[in-house]
Design goal:
Helix content: 25-40%
Order of helices and strands: EEEHEEHEHHHHEHEHEEHH
Radius of gyration: 17 Å
Strand order of the largest sheet: 6-7-8-3-9-10
Strand content: 25-35%
Shape: globular
Length: 231
């Protein structure tokens, strides 16, 4: 049984349709990259999976169970973890409070977050608005992991980060997949980085999948990806 099955999904905001008739399956432990230019529906797909976008048609099944009508908090309880592009750190809470407020029963706890991101341990008493961009991204990922998800959705995780921090985040994602067995979906403008971190990729254009395949194959023939993502 697939971890997440999306069938005929059409979604958007208000009366506006952004993604149309999408079919997608994510297996347990699999890494998927979602690529495409700005405005083609990448973030909307993530929001639709989490229940923050309007679903006009289609189904979403989590481990065989229909979740299309479930509110976001119930999807999170079932094991979907979302790291939004905006990070949404609580500015009036300390680093440690930001982590603990999201904690749910499971194998991943506070010490695991500090082991994964030693810098957060050093900054654990700092307020959320007293962190660098890289530290905020570490905190956003760590806080989502505190919910003990099975699927980790990462929306533009490298945006605005210094190259050395991007390398740290890439190593963290590899570690999470290798050691913890997380399934991941990465939306990322840096297409080659996303392909190197995933098993499989889809490219979106105007709300539809226009190209898909194994990440290694798409890296080997990157020209076909570039045709769809070039501005």
């Amino acid at each position: 049984m697939a971890l997440l099955e999306i069938e005929g999904l059409t979604a958007g905001y208000g009366e506006a349709v952004v993604i149309e008739e999408m079919n997608l399956t994510i297996e347990d432990g699999e890494g998927l990259a979602v690529l495409g230019r700005n405005g083609v529906g990448k973030t909307t797909l993530m929001l639709a999976i989490m229940g923050h976008a309007r679903r006009f048609a289609g189904s979403l099944r989590w481990q065989g169970r229909e979740i299309g009508a479930m509110p976001p908090h119930e999807r999170a309880r079932m094991g979907l973890g979302w790291v939004p592009q905006e990070r949404d750190i609580f500015p009036s809470l300390t680093v440690e409070e930001n982590l603990l407020v999201a904690s749910r029963p499971g194998p991943f706890g506070l010490e695991d977050a500090y082991s994964l991101f030693p810098r957060l341990r050093e900054r654990r008493r700092n307020m959320g608005d007293k962190l660098s961009g890289g530290e905020q991204q570490m905190l956003a990922v760590g806080r989502t992991l505190m919910t003990n998800p099975h699927l980790l959705l990462l929306d533009e995780p490298f945006e605005g980060l210094a190259p050395v921090i991007v390398q740290e985040m890439e190593a963290t994602i590899r570690r999470l997949r290798a050691e913890k067995g997380f399934a991941t979906v990465i939306v990322e403008q840096h297409a080659e980085d996303a392909l190197e971190l995933s098993d499989r990729a889809i490219v979106l254009d105007r709300g539809r999948i226009v190209l898909q395949g194994r990440s290694s194959d798409l890296l080997a023939d990157f020209g076909q990806v570039r045709r769809w993502i070039a501005v």
